[in-house]
């Protein structure tokens, strides 16, 4: 089945509070996706951000990002006053996340919400503290990771965000008596971090359910590695390769290549796969279970690492002196699918240098891999659309690429542009971005995902992440009036042309209407049909063959592409 979706991180949604959240704008975006005929919303990891504000260097493989908790919903629940939200400077640029301001103020406001929550629960049913039933249901359901995570974050708070490897020895080594003593001494702080996950889960579950009602599936990410400074590393023990003193033996990265003479040193501890086999991959099964609760479809980052991975002695300053090691391969995925009793909805991120054995693993797994159009025009290669297979997900660019507009104007070489003009029949450079989008939509790939920034045709200011660059990443936010009805109509029209969604309804608004998005729209209401229609594409009959559709796209037989 051909389908389509939009890549748009939660952090990039507009709204108050300095960063995208699970609030009104998230519901409006779901409505926008539905109107645009999209079946998939790709959101990237929901995990807390870590080093470099990256969700791929998180303090937990299981927890959710407290920044995404909607403060206005907390106010509606009586846990905050409006002044608690509006009285804080969350940043000065609506198009950027100011992580410095978030770090300074967000948890102060959330601590107020926690104190009000405790006050609400005090004295109920003649008890000092009567927590709601869903609190106990949530904590019981997540007992395999939540207590350790809350205690880890308490340690980070008490020791002023120092790495757990720098904590007092007995706590660092998880001496049972010391761990319990620490927990008892800091019960309220442990409760605070538990409360944040409770509120995250309530709000995200409601938003995810709403998306499901609208026919929109959530595609999220599961990074392959845990961060060195994380609850997982602190509590994981033999999950990771260790020296006799408990320190990490080796860390992950990439070997030297054309882009870097010294390789990439990520610093994540590598797994002790022999131990994982002994446990029947129990930790991975728990991790996948959590991912399937958060998402409908799971994109596994760095899939090639399950076949072969680059392991570097800990303490090395570069990645030059590592070596390739064999991963668990299909043994892991068979164990997970046996545990769940079904085929897992996984997308494999199979980009980068791949050995033949990685391709064999991908074929054996049956999971769709990824194709990226920005990689296609440097010469004949697997990323050219005529090389695609149906069981793939195609992107113009991923979160690690710049936008199509910036790529065409500033990144693509003249050779790439010349080839792309010939391949896509581009006669005017102002049509290049639309032609590249259409190339993804018209491909044989079962699924096409277009970043929201590429539908908006934004420049490099909307790039999400530049690998290897410290700072300035994960900042872009969409402006509140950008996701218009007119844009939704145009998106649906293009996706319908290539058989990825149903036909759009004709817009009812008069053509001269300039501002179709009204601020009075309620968060869970379908947006009113007030859009100015885009110029109509030449009609393509539903029964038109794939060849005729391609002719229509290319402008053959006298038809001109608008």
Q: Helices, strands, pairings?
A:
Elements: E1 3-7, H1 24-35, E2 40-42, H2 71-76, H3 82-86, H4 99-121, H5 133-141, H6 146-158, H7 169-172, H8 176-185, H9 187-213, E3 217-222, H10 231-236, E4 250-254, E5 264-269, H11 273-278, H12 282-294, E6 297-300, E7 308-313, E8 323-326, H13 330-340, E9 346-348, H14 356-365, E10 369-372, E11 392-395, H15 404-411, H16 414-424, H17 432-442, E12 447-451, H18 452-455, H19 485-497, H20 546-554
Parallel strand pairs: 1-2, 1-12, 2-3, 3-6, 6-9, 10-11, 11-12
Antiparallel strand pairs: 4-5, 4-7, 7-8
Helix pairs in contact: 6-9, 12-13
Per DSSP E runs of 2 or more residues, the count of β-strands stands at 12
Number of domains: 1
The CATH homologous superfamily: Glycosidases
Helix/strand/pairing category: alpha/beta
What percent of the residues sit in helical stretches (DSSP H or I)?
25-40%
Major beta sheet, strand line-up: 9-6-3-2-1-12-11-10
The CATH class: Alpha Beta
Uncertain residue ranges:
510-562
Mean pLDDT across the residues is: 90
User: What is the first-to-last residue Cα distance?
Assistant: 27 Å
Q: Report Rg.
A: 25 Å
Largest sheet: 8 strands, parallel
Stated plainly, the CATH topology is called TIM Barrel
Total of helices: 20
Silhouette: globular
Q: Tell me what the CATH architecture is.
A: Alpha-Beta Barrel
Binned strand content: 5-15%
């Amino acid at each position: 089945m051909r389908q389509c979706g939009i890549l748009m991180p939660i952090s990039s949604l507009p709204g108050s509070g300095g960063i995208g959240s699970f609030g009104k704008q998230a519901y409006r975006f779901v409505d926008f996706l539905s109107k645009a005929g999209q079946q998939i919303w790709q959101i990237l990891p929901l995990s807390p951000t870590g080093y470099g504000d990256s969700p791929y260097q998180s303090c937990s493989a299981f927890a959710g990002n407290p920044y995404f908790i909607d403060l206005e919903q907390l106010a509606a629940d009586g846990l905050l006053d409006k002044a608690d939200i509006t009285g804080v400077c969350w940043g000065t640029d609506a198009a950027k996340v100011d992580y410095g301001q978030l770090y300074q103020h967000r948890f102060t406001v959330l601590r107020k919400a926690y104190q009000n929550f405790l006050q609400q629960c005090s004295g109920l049913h003649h008890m000092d503290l009567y927590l709601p039933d869903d609190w106990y249901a949530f904590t019981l359901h997540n007992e395999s990771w939540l207590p350790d995570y809350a205690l880890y974050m308490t340690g980070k708070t008490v020791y002023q965000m120092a790495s757990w490897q720098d904590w007092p020895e007995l706590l660092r080594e998880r001496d049972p008596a010391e761990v319990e003593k620490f927990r008892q001494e800091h019960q309220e702080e442990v409760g605070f971090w538990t409360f944040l996950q409770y509120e995250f889960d309530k709000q995200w579950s409601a938003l995810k359910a709403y998306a499901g009602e609208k026919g929109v599936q959530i595609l999220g990410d599961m990074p392959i590695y845990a961060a060195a400074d994380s609850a997982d590393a602190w509590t994981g023990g033999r999950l990771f390769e260790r020296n006799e003193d408990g320190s990490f033996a080796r860390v992950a990265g990439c070997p030297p290549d054309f882009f870097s003479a010294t390789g990439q040193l990520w610093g994540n501890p590598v797994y002790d796969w022999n131990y994982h086999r002994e446990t029947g991959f129990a930790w991975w099964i728990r991790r996948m279970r959590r991912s399937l609760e958060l998402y409908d479809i799971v994109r596994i980052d760095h899939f090639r690492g399950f076949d072969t991975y680059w392991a570097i002695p800990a303490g090395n300053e570069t990645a030059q002196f590592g070596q390739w090691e064999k991963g668990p391969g299909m043994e892991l995925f068979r164990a997970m699918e046996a545990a769940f009793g079904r085929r897992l909805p996984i997308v494999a991120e199979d980009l980068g240098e791949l050995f033949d054995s990685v391709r064999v693993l991908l074929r054996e797994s049956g999971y769709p891999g990824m194709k990226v159009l920005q990689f296609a025009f440097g010469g004949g290669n697997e990323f050219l659309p005529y090389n695609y297979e149906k069981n793939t997900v195609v992107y113009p660019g991923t979160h690690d690429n710049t936008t199509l507009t910036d790529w065409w104007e500033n990144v693509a070489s003249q050779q790439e542009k010349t080839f792309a003009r010939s391949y896509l029949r581009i006669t005017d450079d102002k049509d290049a971005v639309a032609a590249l989008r259409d190339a993804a939509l018209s491909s044989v790939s079962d699924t096409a995902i277009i970043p929201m920034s590429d539908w908006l045709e934004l420049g490099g200011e909307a790039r999400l992440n530049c690998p290897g660059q410290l700072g300035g990443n994960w900042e872009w936010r969409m402006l509140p009036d950008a996701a218009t009805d007119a844009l939704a109509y145009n998106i649906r029209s293009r996706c319908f042309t290539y058989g990825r969604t149903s036909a759009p309804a004709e817009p009812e608004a008069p053509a001269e209407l300039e501002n179709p998005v009204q601020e009075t729209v309620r968060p869970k209401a379908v947006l009113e049909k007030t859009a100015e229609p885009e110029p109509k594409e030449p009609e393509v009959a539903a029964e038109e063959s794939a060849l005729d559709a391609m002719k229509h796209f290319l402008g053959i037989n006298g038809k001109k592409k608008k």
